Task: inverse folding
């Protein structure tokens, strides 16, 4: 197998592994609050929103040290261990206990930081400036296939159900735990690159080929990775991209947790309200897959760079927010177990609700594929610290959003996303224009990014 074929093979395996793990985790997140609402008359008193807030809060803090962990352990083993913790979190729902639920939330927050930092490193070392756009799109399309498969099962399994029984819950979460473990095992198929640098290493070939197994060498790499993360955090490009990244964190919270809860709380949807949560996730996944695949395949022929894709993303999202505002009752995110009979500015439409799910996924893929691409392009030599900062900002904003989702009406959640999305688009444009100018100055073809 040629080096280029091996790199593409690694990207595909990376995407498939994440697809399995996040088939389990994203489906879990999408139905967690609905399942927990059906448990709250028992001894269990947890909150899905609070759990996600803990996860993303710990996730954000852990990104400060995750480059050092990946530097010491290596990206492959880091992803394997992290995958195990994802599986344990999902397994908690088989027999929920409040203490276990929140403890697992802390551990998965740490695991998530390591997993995504290692993913960014793996994506970058298997790409170059000519393939980073394609590989980002391929990875994103495979990853977001997870939204399709898990939610398809939920749609059929919960068809016509207004209450989720103990048997229903156990069957779903046993299956999701097994699926997560399959994805974890697949990480072992990723083939090491002979020239792969671990985070924090210098460019020197002698250092790459040196005694990287010694404890002193590993500690040196860990400290260097930490210092690099702090240094990169204050660069102009990272600060500007942080606004865009913050927006993706808010949107992540909304489509992966809040919007499904809103749909499940609308009593006017009748007996289909719970199964519609699964259908919503399916169409979000279709939007993500379509966007990732389309922008990955077209990246080689895109002579205009990343800005048009991001512009498409923000327009699609603003249309979705507008329709959701008109279609969904304001109290839907915080409705009690009985749901809500309120009406917004139109009679709630299942078709409009599901169409908005598709738009949320499509717009999210526009932003994330281009952020992965520009980070891999700008920081090809410092991939792990750069992706750790990306996930730090995204996750802390997701944590904040999950926290206020417990209290804010729908209209205020939508308004926050509109404001941050507007400014995030402008800051992304600024960085992209500067990247394009630098590329032209180097004599490269701008369409290659």
Result:
């Amino acid at each position: 197998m040629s080096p280029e074929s091996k790199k593409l093979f690694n990207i595909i395996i990376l995407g498939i592994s994440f697809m399995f793990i996040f088939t389990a985790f994203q489906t879990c997140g999408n139905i967690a609050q609905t399942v927990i609402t059906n448990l709250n008359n028992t001894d269990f008193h947890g909150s899905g929103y609070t759990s996600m807030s803990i996860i993303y809060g710990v996730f954000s803090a852990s990104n400060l040290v995750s480059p050092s962990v990946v530097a010491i352990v290596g990206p492959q083993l880091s992803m394997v261990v992290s995958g195990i913790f994802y599986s344990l979190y999902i397994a908690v729902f088989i027999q929920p206990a409040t203490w276990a639920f929140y403890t697992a939330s802390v551990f998965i927050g740490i695991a998530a930081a390591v997993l995504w930092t290692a993913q960014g490193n793996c994506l970058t070392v298997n790409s170059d400036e000519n393939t980073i756009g394609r590989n980002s799109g391929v990875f994103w399309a495979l990853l977001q296939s997870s939204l399709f498969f898990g939610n398809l099962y939920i749609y059929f399994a919960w068809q016509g159900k207004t209450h989720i029984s103990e048997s229903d819950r156990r069957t779903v979460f046993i299956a999701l735990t097994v699926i997560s473990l399959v994805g974890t095992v697949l990480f072992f198929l990723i083939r090491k690159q002979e020239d792969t640098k671990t985070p924090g290493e210098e460019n020197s070939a002698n250092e790459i080929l040196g005694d990287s197994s010694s404890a002193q060498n590993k500690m040196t790499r860990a400290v260097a990775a930490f210092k690099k993360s702090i240094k990169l955090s204050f660069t102009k490009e990272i600060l500007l991209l942080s606004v865009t990244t913050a927006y993706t964190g808010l949107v992540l919270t909304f489509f992966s947790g809040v919007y499904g809860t809103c749909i499940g709380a609308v009593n006017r949807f009748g007996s289909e309200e719970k199964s519609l949560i699964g259908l919503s996730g399916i169409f979000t996944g279709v939007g993500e897959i379509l966007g990732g695949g389309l922008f990955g395949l077209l990246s080689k022929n895109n002579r205009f760079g990343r800005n048009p894709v991001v512009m498409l993303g923000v327009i699609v999202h603003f249309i979705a927010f507008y329709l959701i505002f008109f279609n969904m009752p304001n109290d839907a995110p915080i409705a009690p177990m009985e749901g809500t009979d309120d009406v917004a500015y139109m009679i709630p439409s299942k078709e409009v609700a599901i169409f908005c799910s598709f738009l949320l996924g499509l717009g999210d893929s526009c932003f994330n594929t281009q952020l992965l691409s520009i980070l891999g392009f700008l920081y090809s030599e410092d991939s792990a610290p750069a992706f750790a900062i990306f996930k730090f900002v995204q996750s802390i904003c997701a944590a904040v959003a999950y926290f206020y989702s417990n209290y804010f009406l729908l209209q205020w959640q939508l308004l926050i996303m509109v404001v941050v999305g507007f400014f995030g688009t402008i800051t992304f444009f600024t960085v992209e224009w500067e990247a394009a100018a630098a590329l032209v100055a180097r004599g490269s073809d701008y369409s290659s990014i």
